[in-house]
Amino acid sequence: MSDVTKKNVGIILLRPDRLTLTIQDENQKVVTQVRSGALRVGDELVANYLENMDAITTNLVGFQRVLKEYAVKEVACFGDLDDLDDVSAQYVADQIEVRVGLKLRWLNKNQLLAQTLAQTWPRFKHELGDQQLTGYVLCVGLSNSTLSYFNQGQFMNCWDIDLGKARINQLAENLRQTTATPSDIITDFISSKLEYLVPELSGQSAPVLLVQGVETLAQRYIQAPNVIAQVDMASFKQRFRRILSSSDQYIIHQYDVDEQSVDWVLPSYLVVRQTMRLLKARKLYVTSLDQPDGLLADYANKLPVNDLVRSAADKMAQRYGIDVYHKEFVTKVAMQLFDALKPIHRLNNHYRLLLELACKVDDIGNFINPQGHYRHSAYILEANPLIGISDVDNLIIAEVSRYHSSEAPEIDQHHFKELRSRLRLPIAQLAAILRVADSLDDSRQQKISEISLKLKGDRLLIKAKANDDLVLEKWAFLRKNKLFTQVYGLQPELIAKGAK
Q: Could you name the domain of life of the organism this protein comes from (predicted)?
């Protein structure tokens, strides 16, 4: 066993098909990794945690013995929500805390994806020695898969595809009742799910594709200590044909899979093959990096997940035609206001990030209609959650965007009334700041070049250095600052300097 250190850290990840414990030392090197036996996934909902509760508890007790052996004092326990509903998720978390004393933090697919991408893409660029690398990352999951696009090394976009390997297997099971050769129908099914991406992806020629989440590919082509390897195209096609015609017993023996995951091997290869065809990929790579690796690095503050989230918000703003200069102005001013008011609102830096993201995307509703654009912004955000943050965080951003303009949050409003009580005040606090910041560039001409803030009694003095007349900004400021006064108990005053 490796030298025991009191600074070892343990990360436990509960997924629908198994649990994983990873222990790292003070230098962020993996000391050991332990995987549970297979958990049975559901026939309808993949996340079958309720029926697997006894097995989950037994494995967690075993993990606790390993943690004690390695003198681990710091333990973080995460769970993959997948298709689990909120009520069941709370029940599972409560059961784990009661039975084994571990607090479980649920992560949605976008959070897990961001942590995976923040781990895999930098390593991929390093492996290829190309800091300007352009390509795609395909993460194959149980319920769904995701395709992410990076251009010149920068995150651009991602698409959630209803093509999980367990889901596809469920379809195959149903088709076996009616046809002897379901693979052709499954191939058509996969193609239909990918077809809607063709218009968005057609402009990219001969991209590079990195595949994550297909263990049999990783085992075949990656030699330790490497975590990324190139897959020979001819070899991949030959391997695919062999899997297509082989029995389950042959695959279990040859590819080191259990009796449950053997059913996911062919669907995984089908998804990879059809994605390669769609992208016209010239090179295929595979990685053995997994979600626990991303969680471990994120826990050690080694991953720029927040930078990826910011990039995703910027790309969403670009996609919906937001005025870049207005966005940057509002974001800068809102951050100044947030920092100046910290002794009053007492919100942490995570809320600062949420306000920053809201500043980037609050006007995307103009793409649909400038009239009532704030409402359009909210439902676009509800339908297209930002990568890397929780469902609650996405809800906060959507609601702050809803209330950043004409409407103010009031208890008799449908959306505000349905919010959890603990979210109402932070949403109002962030919305109030955004309204003031937005009003200072109501003309969209960035007339104000510099502002300074000063708290004086029950007043917030906003001194603005302007290069033009601020008649419109002053009118918007007076119209939008009522919420700010209600929330903070301060009367904001705009003092213009240098106006012509």
A: Bacteria
Tokens, residue 217: 């590919």
CATH number of 111-299: 3.30.420.150
Q: Is 384 exposed, middle or buried (0-12, 13-18, 19+ CB in 10 A)?
A: middle
CA distances from 392 to 128, 220, 295, 384 (A): 37, 40, 19, 14
Question: What is the distance between the alpha carbons of residues 470 and 311, in angstroms, rounded to a whole number?
Answer: 32
Give the model's confidence band at 5: pLDDT under 50 very low, under 70 low, under 90 confident, else very high. very low
**In this predicted structure, what is the pLDDT of residue 468?**
82
Q: What is the mean pLDDT of residues 225-240?
A: 91
What is the reported pTM? Answer: 0.86
In tens, the pLDDT along 102-133 reads 999 999 988 888 888 888 888 898 888 887 78
According to DSSP, the residues that pair with 138 across neighbouring strands are 147, 211
Q: What share of the chain is helix, strand, coil (3-state, %, to 5)?
A: 50, 20, 30
- CATH code: domain 9-107 is 3.30.420.40
Fold that domain 305-497 belongs to in CATH? Hypothetical protein af1432 (1.10.3210)
DSSP 3-state of 176: coil
Do 15 and 80 touch, CB atoms closer than 8 A? yes
Q: What strand order describes the sheet that includes 208-212?
A: 154-161, 145-151, 135-140, 208-212, 283-287, 228-231
2: confidence class by pLDDT, cuts 50, 70, 90: very low
Q: Do 373 and 365 touch, CB atoms closer than 8 A?
A: yes
Question: Region 467-492: what's the mean pLDDT?
Answer: 87
Domain layout of the chain by residue ranges? 9-107, 111-299, 305-497
CA neighbor of 257 nearest in space, from 169, 333, 324, 322: 169
Q: What is the mean pLDDT of residues 339-348?
A: 92
Cα gap 66→114, rounded to integer Å: 29
- Give the whole-number percent of the chain exceeding pLDDT 70: 91
Mean pLDDT calculated for residue range 173-200? 77
Between the alpha carbon of residue 129 and those of residues 124, 166, 305, the distances in Å are 8, 35, 22
Phi, psi for 154 (deg, rounded to 5):
-105, 140
